[in-house]
Amino acid sequence: MDDKYLVVKGSSGSGLGDRLRALLVGLVYARVSGRRVFVDWSDGVCADPGINSFPLLFDTRGTQFAGDLPEEKTSILPAAWRGRLQRTFHDVYVGDGNTTWDRQDTIRRYSIDMTRVDYPDRVLVMWDFDQLNSIRQAVPGLFESDDEQILCDMYHQNLVPVPEVVAAVEEYNRGLSRPAIGVHVRAAREWDDNKGKIHLHQYCRTLDRLMDRTRARSIFVATDNAAVQDRLLQRYGKARARGKWFAAPGESLHRNESCPDPLGNARDALIELGILAECDHLVYPAASSFGQTAALISNGNRNQQYKLFPERSSVKRLLAKLNNLLRSDIPDGYS
């Protein structure tokens, strides 16, 4: 293990949720392949460019983490990283002349194929979170748990947020009346364009029915849009939210040049992730990696986690509602 490494890069388009999910898959791979892990989040998304934000956000335990990036003069896979290990994913990707995004081709070119765990190369590099099934193929029968439980275990066994983040989560949770509903709302234009818009009335309809059923005493709101936060706080007297920096309405909070403190912004996101994960019920967009990660690291009942989807045709909504009748614990309004 001392001689072999897995380097986990942050992709320039990924926020905290995507990065954490990729790291958790990397931790699984490192465990079965006997490698040390180095996490390189120095691409300027979660801190100023050139500063590795990972050790500023997380302490580590369990898996052996490397304190320094391995040297360049060694065997490295994929070949695209040879001689460029110190560079960010974005710099390498753009430097290769890429102008359009093909996710599967980019995984093939810039992440190792995880159906193999016996590479002789000293350094392997990855950035994606799509290869957990590949690891299962490489080591049949190793994992009895489902994917979500495997990644949840990886998180709790290997990662703990830095003390100031843990303290902030604990302090906030002490003031949150129980039972509590956590709701994560994505309302950035770029996200709506790529994933499909989920209207605020869908969140409200779900919250109304969930509050009526659970007799929740508080709602914690985590969103990327200040106007959405204000509307939810005005609508629900039991709703609360943390103070934080917001971008202009409709703009993303990460990868935003107007953000005065990218590291502080990442810490706020990590605090909100921790609060959401400890809520008794969780409502979030099904396609949101941040919401998925909150659900993933939660030790709560998955039947108390509710995913929202963009509104569909009346026929598809009817089919979804009929399907939901099989789960009596799900209020109407989402699937």
Quick take:
It contains 13 helices and 11 strands. It has helices at 16-33, 54-57, 89-95, 103-110, 132-138, 147-158, 163-174, 189-195, 200-214, 226-235, 262-277, 289-297, 314-324; strands at residues 5-9, 36-40, 58-60, 76-77, 123-126, 159-161, 180-185, 218-223, 239-240, 281-285, 305-308.
Q: What secondary-structure arrangement, pairings included, does this model have?
A:
Elements: E1 5-9, H1 16-33, E2 36-40, H2 54-57, E3 58-60, E4 76-77, H3 89-95, H4 103-110, E5 123-126, H5 132-138, H6 147-158, E6 159-161, H7 163-174, E7 180-185, H8 189-195, H9 200-214, E8 218-223, H10 226-235, E9 239-240, H11 262-277, E10 281-285, H12 289-297, E11 305-308, H13 314-324
Parallel strand pairs: 1-2, 1-5, 4-5, 7-8, 7-10, 8-9, 10-11
Antiparallel strand pairs: 3-6
Helix pairs in contact: 1-6, 1-12, 7-11, 11-12
Order of strands across the biggest sheet?
A: 9-8-7-10-11
Instruction: Report the sheet with the most strands, covering strand number, pairing sense and barrel closure.
Output: 5 strands, parallel
CATH architecture of the largest domain: 3-Layer(aba) Sandwich
CATH uppermost class of the largest domain: Alpha Beta
**By helix and strand content, what is the structural category?**
alpha/beta
- Give the mean pLDDT: 89
**Helix segment tally:** 13
Runs in which pLDDT lies below 50 for 5 or more consecutive residues are 327-335
Cα shape: globular
The gyration radius over C-alpha positions equals 20 Å
**Helicity level, as a percent range?**
40-55%
What's the number of domains?
Answer: 2
> Quick one: how many beta strands?
11
Looking at the structure, the CATH topology of the largest domain is Rossmann fold
Termini separation (Å)?
Answer: 44 Å
